[in-house]
Amino acid sequence: MTFNAFLSLLHGAGVTISVSLAGIALGVPFGLALALLRWQRVPLLAPLATVYVSLLRSTPAVTLCLLIFFALPVIGIEIDALSAAVATLTLNTAAFNCEIWRSGLMNFSRDQIEAARTFGMSGPLTFRRIIFPQLWRTCLPSLVNEMTLLIKSSTAIAVIGVAEITRAAIRIGAQTYDPLPPMLVATGIYIVLVLVFVGLQRFTERVYGHAGGAA
Amino acid sequence: MTDTAVKANDISVLEISGITKTFDDKVVLDGVSLTVARGQTVCLLGPSGSGKSTLLRCVNWLERPDQGTVLLCGERIGMRKGGVVPMGNAELARLRMRMGTVFQHFNLWPHLTVLQNIIEAPVHVQKRRRDEVIAEAEALLENVGLADKRDAFPSRLSGGQKQRVGIARALAMKPELLLFDEPTSALDPELVGEVIAVMKSLSQAGSTMLVVTHEMGFARETADKVVLMDGGRIVEQGDPEQFFGNPRTERARQFLQRYVSA
Predict the structure, then answer these.
(1) Which of B93, B120, B153 lies at the smallest CB-CB distance from A211?
(2) Which of A72, A209, B25, B65 has the fewest CB within 10 Å, making it most exposed?
(3) Boundaries of each ABC transmembrane type-1 domain copy (chain A) (predicted)?
(4) A213 to chain B: closest CA residue
(5) Domain A3-210 has CATH 1.10.3720.10
(6) What is the pLDDT of residues B80-104, one digit of tens each?
(7) pLDDT value of position B6
(8) Are B36 and B99 in contact (CB under 8 A)?
């Protein structure tokens, strides 16, 4: 494996990281919005969110990616490969994040919400001041788990020609007739990425984890 | 600080009339009427399932009664003028803000410190100045004997301490009416005294209080009026001396007997 080949793998890693981070940054809040719609049983929107989650959870990321990249132009929406990649990961992870947020909301203490109500707190204020600060702490491990799944499934975007880690590795292997070294390096990069995420989760829990426990 | 001649003529702080509430087929409240005058401590007694807690929940409209009205200082709760249109959340919140509630299970917010629990609603709901509210909260903590727990999280407190924080949190809203929903029922027996002591001093300081309780001693010594509920109705009400010494109804006699022998 040449130095140039190694550079192209690193470039692939850069693409995987930035596309994944974009998917996480958009998909986590989007999932929360979906979860809130369902939790609050908002008329019309809550059933739509339910359908969305069922559909997206049962669509493979590769299929979704192809659908977005090749089908959207048919209805007049031009989209470049990188945007299609980010959209794929966002829409996919949002469905799973929705379920994580929702289970956190459903298990949230009714007593605490009731206390907030009797003290005159509005719904949005209760969410911002009472629910969310505790919710994200309980949901964090599951959310990070979903993030690591997203990083690994992000290789689906190779199907529309985005040169992420795995695609770069395949290309190098095809050029050199020696697929083992690039594949090993690619695997190593994934492992490092996932370890970094898990490490960040541990760190966050250590710094912000003090306020757990029942009142 | 107790009732003066002027205050005696004041409008009732709380006026409940003809409250009915049914869950599915079960009648939980059956035409309950009750008034609490300014500065009064009224104790609601009765066996479990008699409707005491539901009545309290109807007062701050956590539970919507099927019939009847609740007036806080003459203002109707839950319904707009005319009594047909339900209040919006904002209007309801404005009225709830004027009542402080103390819960059986404390319902403190575990992610906030003791001080943060107390100042949360005054700062974010009543929009009062933070430094002012903090000073008041510190004074309240001093009063309930927990000045040293200012920065502790609720999970580090005993049940009695949690409930005293709960009382301080309710007082920080400067409410016109304090509602206590079995404030000592979830406590270890040896922790009941510290909470009762705080409630007594509040009562003596002239707070208006409606207290659902099983603490007969507290009711006897502190209440201005004792109300016995059973099966969703008020069976007997009167001053504690008469109620405990010489109850008028057979039901009250039975109820008291069980508590004396227990």
Answers:
(1) B153
(2) B25
(3) 13-202
(4) B155
(5) yes
(6) 887 788 898 889 999 999 999 999 9
(7) 44
(8) no
